[in-house]
């Protein structure tokens, strides 16, 4: 709808509304037997996850909470990670089955290490790690240890958590790392990660910084999948779709209203379908290094499938987090 798109209020330098989500399918990856409107409960119907241990970050609200709820409903024991222990406990009280609350503030890197230690102390393999938590479109530049906060939270916090839990994931019969990205990674710089300005000081824009963090999520999953080759573990990234949750609390109110006219709005139950499918689908055992939308594999934008950029992101991230790495 180019005419309507031109009516959207945009700040100078703001990205135009994102293009339609990709529909090209990579070869050799199983397709899901349901459509875009399917819910998390529907895509996991009949699955028995008893005996599996799952960790979901950002599990106290929105897509994360629904992902945790449905996986617990199917029998998994869920570690519910929230920014505070009180929030995690409150979420656990509203979930079915066995749940363990975990305090996890992704910008507190020593705290991330402590959270990982608590999970390892459970003494069990980690069957699924869903990297879902995040912040979006912070109106002003904020930094964590000199790095723009959305990149530091959405990517670096999860990168560090995975480093400390990867051995537990690999100990599972078919451990899975599921990384929640977004189709708005197309809002990132056309050339990809802005390596020379991870502080965000050159020309900060809320949406572009968020897009870069989501691009980093996809590239991280790609790099992790390459490192997991030859093991039983897998890593994939996904786009949950446009779900109007608390994640949008910093979004421009006028643009938030218009966006529903340009992009199909999904319910939280539908947005949680793809992470639940990647976490639980038997057909995806051994499937790794792919990107998914609406429960099906898709070919993402070129800058999200660049192996050189993925490898560089890994090295840069490890360098930035060196004091906290295992």
Give the C-alpha Rg.
18 Å
Rounded mean pLDDT is 90
* CATH T-level fold name: Rossmann fold
Number of helices: 11
Low-confidence segments, ≥5 residues, pLDDT <50?
1-20, 252-263
Order of helices and strands: HHEHEHEHEEEHEHEHHHEEH
CATH architecture: 3-Layer(aba) Sandwich
Question: Helicity level, as a percent range?
Answer: 25-40%
Please state the overall shape, judged from the principal axes of the Cα atoms: globular
Give the full name of the CATH homologous superfamily: NAD(P)-binding Rossmann-like Domain
Report the CATH C-level class.
Alpha Beta
Task: Give a description of the structure.
This protein has helices at 2-5, 40-43, 62-73, 85-93, 109-120, 149-170, 206-227, 253-262, 268-271, 273-280, 307-320; strands at 53-56, 77-82, 99-103, 128-131, 143-144, 147-148, 176-180, 234-239, 291-293, 296-298. It has 326 residues and is an alpha/beta fold. It has one domain (34-324): Rossmann fold (3-Layer(aba) Sandwich), CATH 3.40.50. Strand 7 (176-180), helix 7 (206-227) and strand 8 (234-239) form a beta-alpha-beta unit. It starts with a helix and ends in a 6-residue tail after the last helix.
């Amino acid at each position: 709808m180019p005419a309507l798109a031109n009516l959207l209020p945009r700040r100078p330098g703001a990205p135009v509304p994102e293009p339609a989500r990709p529909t090209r399918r990579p070869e050799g990856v199983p397709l899901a037997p349901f459509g875009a409107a399917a819910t998390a409960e529907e895509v996991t119907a009949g699955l028995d996850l008893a005996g599996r241990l799952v960790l979901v970050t950002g599990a106290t609200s929105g897509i994360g909470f629904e992902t945790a709820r449905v996986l617990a409903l199917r029998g998994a024991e869920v570690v519910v990670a929230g920014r505070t222990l009180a929030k995690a406990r409150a979420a656990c009280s509203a979930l079915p089955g066995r749940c363990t609350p975990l305090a996890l503030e992704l910008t507190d890197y020593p705290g991330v290490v402590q959270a990982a230690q608590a999970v390892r102390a459970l003494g069990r393999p980690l069957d699924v790690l869903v990297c879902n938590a995040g912040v979006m479109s912070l109106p002003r530049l904020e930094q964590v240890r000199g790095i723009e906060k959305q990149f530091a939270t959405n990517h670096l916090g999860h990168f560090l958590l995975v480093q400390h839990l990867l051995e537990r994931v690999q100990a599972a019969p078919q451990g899975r790392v599921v990384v929640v990205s977004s189709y708005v990674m197309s809002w990132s710089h056309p050339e990809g990660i802005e390596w020379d300005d991870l502080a965000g000081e050159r020309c900060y824009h809320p949406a572009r910084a968020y897009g870069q963090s989501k691009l980093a999520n996809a590239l991280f999953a790609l790099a992790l999948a390459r490192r997991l080759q030859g093991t039983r573990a897998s890593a994939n990234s996904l786009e949950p779709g446009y779900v109007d949750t608390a994640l949008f609390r910093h979004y421009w109110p006028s643009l938030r209203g218009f966006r529903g006219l340009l992009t199909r709005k999904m319910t939280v139950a539908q947005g949680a379908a793809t992470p639940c499918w990647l976490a639980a689908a038997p057909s995806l055992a051994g499937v790794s290094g792919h990107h998914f939308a609406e429960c099906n594999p898709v070919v993402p934008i070129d800058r999200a499938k660049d192996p050189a950029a993925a490898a560089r992101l890994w090295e840069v991230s490890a360098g930035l987090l060196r004091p906290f790495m295992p």
